[in-house]
Amino acid sequence: MAELSVEIIDMVLDELEAAGARQALKAVGRASKHYRLRVFHRLHKIILLSGEPKILAFLAFVKLGLLKPLYLPRICIELSTTPSESLAATMNNLLNSVSLTYLELREQAQRPCTSELTSQALRIVASAKQPLTIVLVGLKNATWRFSLFASHLELRGCSLALDYPPLGDGFNLPLQSLSFSTDGGIESLDIFNTLRMNLLQLTHLLLSFKPHGQDFEVDDAFVAALSTAGNLEDITVVYEPNALDSSTLAAAVESLVKALSSVARLRKYAINLHWRFTCSPSHVSIVIACMPRLEYFNLISISILGSEEASREILRQGYNLLVMPWPLKEGRPNRNKQFRVDRICISRSQQRTIVDGVTVQDSMTRDVISRRRIHDKLCPWFIRHDTGNFEVTWMDSMVRAEEL
Fold first, then answer.
1. Quick one: which of 361, 363, 366 has its CA closest to 340?
2. Where are the domains of the chain?
3. Which is nearest to 88 in space by CA: 56, 127, 65?
4. Which of 31, 43, 53, 394 is the most exposed place for a label (fewest CB within 10 A)?
């Protein structure tokens, strides 16, 4: 039987994959070895290399010709704490990949991996055909050098480390998005400023913000690092509550607000700012009250868990504090252009989540704001815990400012 060309078979497989037809994909894979190699990664969305049995099984599949490592698009590797010949052999098979787009690296809990494995992981991303989506989970020494080869970089439970400086000065990084899932992200950005890295392609930034004690301050290095991000369009702040007195909390929030406004001033009304809260609506109200100096953003959105009444109260407070000009004066521009509150409604019985967004309609805002370029769309692999890890349905409506 004559085999179809690569282009045609890929078109067929794309259609079957989009339709979720797993049995049909398996049937195509059984037709020939050539087809099986192209079906494998569609049936297995991500290849997890964790533990000796899985790694040996992977090497056996490679030896039998059942898969080609260079054509696997998504791989997750758990880096061992001791030298492993099988893991080293597996990682060597991933060098010079032509299809790799996503690489996740994990460390075993509380036990750092060997420096040899970190270097080998760097060789994988450096030799890939294109910049990758790189997710680092729990790495004790997450070297900044990964950012040299990443279009999207996420750090979960770790921060960037400055192990040694580059040879040269002033690099243009390929990063389009940066996601810091823990509150070390603000400090991590300092490294880019120290090394004079330019974030010319960066459009999306996610920061985890957990206010600390009285010594907490977002310094000028944060603003300096983002001053090179001339295409920045979206900042997301994931707020983590901490047991602080009101004055300490206010000082921490005001420090971040000052830095964010300084960044926005560089691209006035071109950046959208999203705050995500999982605390009580009353605490959200307290935090918002600490933001009177937040300005120059195109959109400010607030995500909360709570009742419709609580959502409407946050909408009224946020719009009056963050959008309306102060002092009120005809012809004075709004501090920020648009305001929205997203109320997250989780149905665990139906295993789905509805995000009910309400935007204030005024002279500046006539239509609901598009979500096409939000962080959730650009970085779909990012784990957003406040939506229950379920499929999300987005709903949008408007309320006139005079009805608040």
1. 361
2. 1-43, 46-202
3. 56
4. 53
